[in-house]
């Protein structure tokens, strides 16, 4: 493709994306296709001769769009949101256009230094503990996902011990994300040495039970080495008591990792900075701008208190990567902070987002979503046949119909197959629970109101049948 053709089709592609985002609200939120429908529309084999770009763009509408679940619809209330924004899309585009590899400082100094700098900015923006700043022994790095962040933290904790892996014990709550269990499995921790600690009535990890389990394990000759606490659990948005958990971790010299994947971004508003109370006791922390900070997937900000431990765990220097800058010890080589060697210029999109919206612009979205969720919770509370399962601390409302699992299951299935909104469910106290997760940038009062009307109407129809 020549430069002129690239310009032409580039403009057309941006137009296509803008049109998609302008009209996404009219599309079914959950894809209505059957398994295999998309592949049936694709040719059996790859084209031998190149095709026209016009045809390729047309097939986006014909083949791809019908097979999408539209995460960017303002009526998307499932899982947690995957934030995007125009500045972030443009940042991704520039990153693709530059095509640089940031594995070493030397392979593109701007890629490394912008990342370090933007991650330091975020510490001030979210009032995170200063121990994570690059000017201390700590530092931040962008990982692809919160799952990777939990894994590399666990590996760093494991490597500093040099102990028998069969003796190592991981702790997290029964409500923690499944990525913690996966991290333990990938890092070779025995399955029976992953201890899930029970939670209180608000689904927060019980520090007393954690303490008791640790003491029991030490008595049986095991080595407690990693606690993963959560700020904003996936099922109920519980915020674990970091101060108490951190104190226990310090007494027993256990690595404390805090997973704020979804909720960390809330701390951009001063009134929600309480969610990180006690975070200064953590060895590592992560949150996902790719969920709630208008930044395209993938972008997890991961911080450590002692970068030397992370680098010790992950650094290998083959001959072909040796260079003067690395040898000087004056630079960061981010390949030593992650599992893979290669890395994209991911900080560009975050830099674009932060500069375009500013702190106040980002605060607007967080405040809006939390206010909408609180209003939705009030509607649930005042309905005779629905109940709130837990008071929502932020923007996730967990609720259910009082008549039990069967009706809740029908409600969610009917709603999702209508394509009008998309909700997902979880189990809390063994009971099916509906989750209303409000965090899509374009979601407004009207969308939440319509969603509630649809939920009530669907429930009524099922009750009357
Ligand atoms: N931790 C929590 C609390 C989450 O809610 C999620 C995903 O929703 C994850 C971790 C996993 O995030 P990622 O997809 O970035 O690995």
UniProtKB/TrEMBL annotation:
N6-(pyridoxal phosphate)lysine: modified positions: 291
Highest taxon listed in the record's lineage: Bacteria
GO-annotated cellular components: cytoplasm
Keywords: Decarboxylase, Lyase, Pyridoxal phosphate
Cofactor(s) this protein cannot do without: pyridoxal 5'-phosphate
Residue stretches spanning the membrane: none
Biological process per Gene Ontology, one example term: carboxylic acid metabolic process
GO molecular function (one): pyridoxal phosphate binding
Family membership: Belongs to the group II decarboxylase family.
Protein name as it appears in the record: Glutamate or tyrosine decarboxylase or a related PLP-dependent protein
């Amino acid at each position: 493709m020549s430069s002129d053709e690239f310009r032409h089709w580039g403009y057309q592609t941006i137009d296509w994306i803008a049109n998609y985002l302008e009209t996404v609200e009219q599309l079914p939120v959950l894809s209505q296709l059957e398994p295999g429908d998309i592949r049936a529309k694709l040719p059996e084999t790859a084209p031998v001769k190149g095709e026209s770009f016009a045809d390729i763009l047309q097939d986006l509408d014909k083949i791809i769009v019908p097979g999408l679940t539209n995460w960017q619809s303002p009526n998307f209330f499932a899982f947690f949101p995957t934030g995007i924004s125009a500045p972030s899309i443009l940042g991704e585009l520039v990153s693709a256009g530059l095509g640089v590899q940031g594995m070493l400082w030397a392979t593109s100094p701007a890629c490394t230094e912008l990342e370090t700098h933007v991650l330091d900015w975020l510490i001030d923006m979210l009032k995170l503990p200063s121990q994570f700043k690059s000017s201390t022994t700590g530092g931040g790095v962008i990982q692809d996902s919160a799952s990777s962040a939990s894994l590399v933290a666990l590996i760093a904790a494991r490597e500093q011990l040099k102990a028998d892996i069969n003796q190592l014990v991981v702790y997290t709550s029964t409500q923690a994300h499944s990525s913690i269990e996966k991290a333990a499995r990938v890092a070779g921790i025995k399955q029976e040495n992953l201890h899930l600690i029970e939670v209180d009535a608000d689904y927060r990890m019980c520090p007393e039970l954690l303490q008791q389990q640790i003491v029991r394990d030490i008595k049986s000759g095991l080595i407690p080495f990693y606690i993963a606490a959560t700020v904003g659990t996936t099922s109920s948005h519980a915020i674990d008591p970091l101060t108490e958990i951190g104190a226990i971790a310090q007494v027993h010299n256990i690595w404390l990792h805090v997973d704020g994947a979804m909720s960390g971004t809330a701390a951009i508003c001063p009134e929600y900075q309480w969610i990180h109370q006690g975070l200064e006791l953590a060895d590592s922390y992560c949150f996902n701008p790719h969920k709630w900070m208008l930044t395209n997937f993938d972008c997890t900000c991961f911080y450590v208190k002692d970068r030397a431990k992370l680098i010790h765990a992950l650094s290998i220097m083959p001959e072909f990567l040796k260079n003067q800058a690395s040898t000087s010890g004056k630079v960061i080589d981010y390949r030593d902070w992650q599992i893979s060697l290669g890395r994209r210029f991911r900080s560009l999109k975050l830099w674009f987002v932060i500069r375009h919206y500013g702190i106040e612009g980002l605060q607007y979205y967080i405040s809006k979503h939390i206010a909408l969720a609180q209003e939705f919770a009030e509607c649930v509370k005042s309905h005779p046949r629905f109940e709130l399962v837990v008071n929502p601390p932020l923007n996730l409302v967990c609720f259910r119909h009082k008549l039990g699992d069967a009706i809740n299951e029908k409600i969610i299935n009917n709603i999702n197959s209508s394509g009008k909104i998309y909700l997902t469910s979880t189990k809390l106290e063994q009971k099916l629970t509906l989750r209303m997760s409000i965090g899509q940038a374009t979601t407004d009062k009207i969308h939440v109101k319509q969603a509630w009307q649809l939920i009530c109407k669907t429930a009524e129809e099922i009750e009357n049948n």
